[in-house]
Amino acid sequence: MGSLIVSMSMSLDGFVAGANAGPDNGLGDGGEVLHSWLNAGNIDPTSYRPERGVNARIFDEMLTTGAVVVDRHTFEWADEWGGDHHDGVPVFVVTRTPPAVSAYEIVSYVDDPVTAIDRAKAAAGERDVMMHGVGAVRDAMRAGAVDEFSIALVPVLLGRGRRLFDEGDTAAFELTRAEQGEGVLHLRYRVRR
Amino acid sequence: MGSLIVSMSMSLDGFVAGANAGPDNGLGDGGEVLHSWLNAGNIDPTSYRPERGVNARIFDEMLTTGAVVVDRHTFEWADEWGGDHHDGVPVFVVTRTPPAVSAYEIVSYVDDPVTAIDRAKAAAGERDVMMHGVGAVRDAMRAGAVDEFSIALVPVLLGRGRRLFDEGDTAAFELTRAEQGEGVLHLRYRVRR
Fold this sequence. Notes:
The structure is a homodimer.
Chain A: E1 4-11, E2 15-17, H1 53-62, E3 67-71, H2 72-77, E4 91-94, E5 107-110, H3 113-124, E6 129-132, H4 134-142, E7 148-154, E8 156-157, E9 162-163, E10 171-181, E11 184-191
Parallel strand pairs in A: 1-6, 1-7, 3-4, 3-6, 4-5
Antiparallel strand pairs in A: 2-9, 7-11, 10-11
């Protein structure tokens, strides 16, 4: 069975979105800079894939995951990725109030984060599961369900916004990889149990 | 003239000390882990120098600085480093209320952070100046006086404590170096003007 990997871009001062994040402002004020590494150098306009280098390799690695778990805010503020995060893998949206019907066949709404993770892992089989969104991450951290963090550390201070790590949460990690891409440092951590 | 380099150990969630930091608890609750990289592997018991590897090299690099600027809390909570941070270089302590007399010839108390930095740079000559302590860092950041950050990024979440970067401060950096030592990732950033 694969690992549950949190995949997020974070500023050096710990924010994954700027202030005032909302439906029409998914990354918050000034937060677009967190995704600028996806556009550094040239990208393929049809896939958003960076064309070369470390950033392309990390992008490709993310797309080898076999399922996605996300909180509802992040899912909706990202315009539901048009119903397909990548390659048609199943998406599990954690929400306390699931809608009666999903607009997309591959998108399931689940009211319990642990159940969402279990279903995603089963669906992914041998492949890893990608997790997005601080709401989902906080639930999963408290459930002890996160295996790894893949953090794109962006060399800016945003000053305000939504933090990846919640006040009060403590943990110990092992750094398993640090690679410099254009405009970003890609870090990979394994959570110590 | 040298650069002003902030040198701090920071948890992945942004803390440079745990909660309840104070005179007898300089690194705060659980904060000793931030300095554990200084003790990874063997150290020379007379100098605290890590004996080998990247950590030793980074340690040695810190000691090539020609002056130190520190805020008074950090200075006092570190037991004033016995009056000598390293090699007898001058220490400039930023405090609103300088004592009439300094207990150490090489320690000067200065009531204005910019003046402290100017005096330290003049004293260091061609060498860089090391800065310690979030109080000093915040003043210096607001004055636009910080040239570089040397951050020992420790793979833990402390959950609470004192943050290196203040809420509301925004900035853009350039990552100039990332090196893995035992139990720590050494990052070097240049502040973009």
